[in-house]
Write a structure and sequence with these properties.
Length: 301
């Protein structure tokens, strides 16, 4: 983990960049009047993007300045979701204002165009094909958007009126996962141009499901929940439960895999983040320093 970037953010309005060798915060960035709802490290590792109230702020990793370099505006409420294109030139966001927005990060910090979801957007995921974006909302709808034609090409509704909390597409592009407020995780398999329903996992029911994410090698699925756990599921064994990661003492909001799929970083309302060994299910590091709930993490190595 020597060259890894571990980044956390939360309700104390700060973003911390951690030294994994010492479990200490090596930089603290200020996020002003807003909590952090989502974090991403840009593909070139030069910037940290933080989604908060009404904007996304960009922080220069190489600078010693603790405040944001620029902010991308356009949403009228909380920005709840954040993703970058593979080359890092486009940023995709979703928000409480019921829109999904696309920004060109090389030009002005105003949205290039928007999609109307029709309900507050809770999550987004960029398809590895880079030409489709998938969004989930509080009404339980999932929309698949064609970024070339700027229109919705498919709707999925696993449970009507049960909010979708998180979406993920496996890096190999074959599987879509979504977790909802009932703690159910739905799995679809790509079938030609569309996704075909494969199975439902009672991942954390009856607790809230909060996050789902595939490992970079597409062999594992991680889920997190208000039940204070994260769970690892084996994609190649019909999504059998591999590990329940126990140690947090409050809701587990977010997670991120290391590039080799061997480690998982989690964020919790207990004010800590933990780094887990995916194979053993054991805690490797515990990161302490935030004064309030940690709600977002990002990891790049």
């Amino acid at each position: 983990m020597e060259a890894a970037m571990l980044v956390t953010g939360g309700y104390d309005h700060t973003i911390r960049i951690w030294n994994p060798d010492t479990c200490s915060s090596k930089r603290t960035l200020q996020h002003g009047e807003s909590q952090i709802n989502a974090l991403e490290i840009t593909p070139d590792r030069n910037f940290i993007a933080a989604a908060g109230y009404a904007d996304v702020r960009m922080y220069d990793v190489l600078s010693n300045t603790p405040t944001a370099m620029t902010a991308f505006h356009g949403h009228s409420g909380n920005v709840t979701a954040l993703a970058f294109s593979e080359e890092g030139t486009r940023m995709y966001t979703g928000g409480d204002d019921e829109t999904v927005k696309v920004f060109d990060v090389r030009s002005t910090p105003d949205d290039k165009f928007s999609f109307d979801q029709g309900s507050p957007v809770t999550c987004i995921a960029l398809d590895p094909n880079q030409v489709q974006l998938i969004s989930g909302d509080q009404d339980g709808k999932i929309g698949r958007w064609d970024l070339r034609a700027n229109l919705c090409i498919e709707h999925l509704i696993p449970e009507l009126d049960v909010g979708i909390r998180s979406l993920a597409v496996s890096p190999d592009g074959n599987v879509l996962a979504a977790i909802n407020d009932e703690g159910h995780c739905y799995i679809w398999e790509r079938d030609a141009k569309d996704f075909r329903a494969l199975k439902q996992i009672k991942a954390h029911h009856p607790y809230f499901g909060l996050k789902c994410m595939f490992s970079p090698d597409s062999t594992k699925l991680a889920t997190t929940s208000s039940d204070m756990t994260a769970r690892i599921w084996d994609v190649n064994d019909d999504f059998e439960l591999k590990h329940t990661l126990e140690g947090h003492t409050a809701w587990v909001w977010d997670c991120a895999f290391s590039g080799d799929s061997a480690l998982l970083l989690t964020a919790s309302s207990d004010t800590t983040s933990r780094l887990w060994d995916v194979e053993s299910g054991e805690t490797v590091l515990e990161l302490k320093g935030h004064q309030r709930a940690v709600t977002a993490v990002a990891l790049k190595d």
